[in-house]
Design brief:
315 residues, alpha/beta, Rossmann fold, Alpha-Beta Plaits, 2 domains, four-stranded antiparallel beta sheet, 29% strand, globular
Length: 315
């Protein structure tokens, strides 16, 4: 007999309405949001600014109350103390005690999380190494850059060895190297069986590390799905770069292509499929020119995301 496993995160018809501005206009930040996150998933929560991402995270962390519906973490209300001890959290704009060193701050975080002293010391050193901040361990945080503070924030979120990690825009302020290191951290958490839920606007990183994504627009969850289902391997189009083609041959190639861009003696052609590629190759051979590159272009997460945003704008 199969055992029913309760979702790590579950929301049912979750809505949040608040008042804004001088006239106290009603703003619907979340609308009937149904969502389930399973144990061990890495879930990316995507949406434009003001879509409701941070509102949901605040509710999940017990920092805000829903207007209707419900949220559950490990089957319990978010404000349950038994839930808090199993979560690591990094808000979008965290505040740190700037006169503490990185080491002192993480020791304090471990103490507040109830990590025993001797174990806490070893864990803090491991986390500093994990986020590549060992060299700044004894430096006061008031001199840290945004990216350095973000790294310490990630370490703080992991100090209690949580089962669930919730991160709000965790890659903000990170340079490409820092983002690569963050992706490596997420990969390690996945291997450890931890559940990771994070919001971000950096879609290329989501595509690399997430199992599933959810897209929220104007407070409504418009789509959820596995990246393997959303992003097929089939090429949407093919880009062919041709060099040394001029005159009538160039004009013929431009008529074959959906789109063409000239750059010096090179011509970048976008065609639909293999038949058009064969036609381009035949024309190039006749022109005694050269094909320097053929690159299939597949649908990216950004393409999918923007299509959903446009659809929502039309409805």
């Amino acid at each position: 007999m199969s055992v029913l496993v309760e979702p790590v995160i579950q929301t049912v018809k979750l809505s949040k309405v608040y008042r804004s501005g001088f006239r106290m206009k009603r703003v619907r930040a979340l609308v009937d949001l149904d969502l389930e996150i399973e144990k061990g998933e890495t879930f990316g929560f995507l949406g434009p600014n003001g879509a409701g991402k941070t509102t949901l995270i605040k509710i999940l962390m017990g920092l805000a109350s829903p207007s209707s519906g419900q949220a559950r973490i490990f089957g319990r209300p978010p404000r349950d103390a038994r839930v808090k001890s199993r979560i690591g959290f990094l808000p979008e704009s965290p505040y740190f005690y700037e006169y503490l060193t990185a080491m002192e701050f993480l020791r304090l975080s471990a103490q507040l999380s109830g990590v025993p002293g001797q174990e806490a010391e070893a864990r803090v050193r491991r986390l500093l190494k994990l986020v590549r901040m060992e060299d700044a361990a004894n430096v006061q945080m008031r001199g840290f850059s945004r990216g350095m503070l973000q790294r310490i924030g990630v370490a703080q979120a992991l100090v209690n060895d949580p089962e669930l990690v919730i991160l709000d825009e965790p890659m903000g302020g990170l340079d490409p190297i820092g983002r690569k290191e963050f992706r490596d951290i997420i990969a390690k958490l996945r291997k450890q069986g931890k559940t990771v839920f994070f919001s971000t606007h950096i879609l290329s990183d989501v595509e690399m590390i997430c199992d599933r994504v959810g897209i929220v627009i104007a407070g409504r969850l418009v789509n959820t799905g596995r990246l393997t289902e959303i992003l097929t391997e089939k090429a949407e189009s093919i880009e062919v770069t041709v060099t040394g083609v001029t005159g009538k041959f160039r004009k013929v190639l431009e008529r074959v292509a959906q789109q063409s861009i000239r750059s010096g003696d090179s011509l970048l052609l976008t065609v639909r499929g293999d038949d058009e590629v064969e036609r381009v190759m035949a024309i190039v051979r006749e022109a005694k020119a050269k094909v320097s590159a053929i690159v299939p272009r597949r649908k990216t997460l950004e393409d999918y995301f923007m299509a959903r945003v446009r659809e929502a704008g039309r409805n």
